[in-house]
Amino acid sequence: MSEKIEALAEALSREDIRPAAAPKVTLGAGLIVAFACALALSLVVLGARPDLVAALMGYEYIVHIKLVFALGVVAVALPIVLDLSLPGRSSSGKMLIAAIPFGAIAIVAALEVSLLPIRDWLQPVEHASWFECLWKIPALAIPAFAVLALAVRRLAPTNLVRTGAYIGLLSGGIGTLGYALHCHDDSLTFVALAYSLAVLIMVIFGAAVGPRVLRWH
Amino acid sequence: MADELRLKGLFRRGLAGDQAAYQAFLSELGGLLERQLCRQLGRMGQFEGHAEDIVQEVLIAVHTKRHTYDWETPVTAWARAIARYKLIDLMRARTQIAADVPFDESLHTVVADGAAVETASAVQSVLRSLPEKLRRPIELMKVGGYSSAETAQMTDMSEAAVKVNVHRGLKALARMWR
Fold first, then answer.
1. Under DSSP, is residue A66 helix (H, G, I), strand (E, B) or coil?
2. Which terminus, N or C, of chain B has the lesser number of Cβ atoms within 10 Å?
3. Does the beta carbon of A3 lie under 8 angstroms from any beta carbon of chain B?
4. Residue B178, pLDDT score
5. Which B residues in the span 123-162 are in contact with A, Cβ-Cβ below 8 Å?
């Protein structure tokens, strides 16, 4: 038995052994703060859509679909981020489930398109709000990403690219939730394409930035 | 298998406040990791003598991140995942630091254990930024060449504390040099 290791074991055991906060508490607190940031930025800086209350109470359910999509992304990403923050846990099954919200909204959008005459099918692609959507969702998501990354860094992520990507997914969902309160565009096809793309941008951002931001020692 | 149950029990008791159990947990885990690491380093063509120092880094990480164990996965799997992360992290730190050392300066370069590269005078200026508790042992042991026992006497710390502080200091230096 190595003498150096024995001595280190002894020295470390003399420190305060009480562990830090439970991982779920840390991540949960981060999630709440991240949501608060995105909501505040959306309502205060961007401004809620003027007909928000009417849309929520109406029969068109577009806003509801947007919100459910966003919450769905958050719901599938959160357990994966937790798994990735604890060494030794595998999350391979859950990663497949992460595709569900995207698949679901794609199906719903396809249904909408099928009801339109063929010459109108390309209409969503020509929307002017592409650019707006693709920068506003990340604008709301990035502060959420920062908060969540700080929380995850207190845990022990071992694959920084993958963890960054899924924090990107999680914060993308949070940003989308905030944006849904502001977004005027109610074409489902457009929403399915643009929102999904915006979240994908956050995933790529997270994967790129993960190794720099999540490193712990 | 028996190792796993035993380690898990020691860890549980250690976290509940049993200092002796916690020490036994760390030292047995350290022995286990060292054996595995020697094999792995040998296969990678790396110098197995570094295994001991890497294991010390891993144990410090295990201690720091002890709240990330979820009791469902085997404790050895958890520790091995931390060890894998630390090994890659240390290797990267070592190659990055080696790349940053300016070769056009006429300084003597010495590759120490762990992840720190020292140059004769650059080390003085960076050391000055460390807190006294970490700087003294490093100056004495790494620059002055005293043994850990001699350093312990000169700094009025226990020998184990000297080793812990040298490691913390080297880690901090490695971070600064990135």
1. helix
2. N
3. no
4. 44
5. 158-161
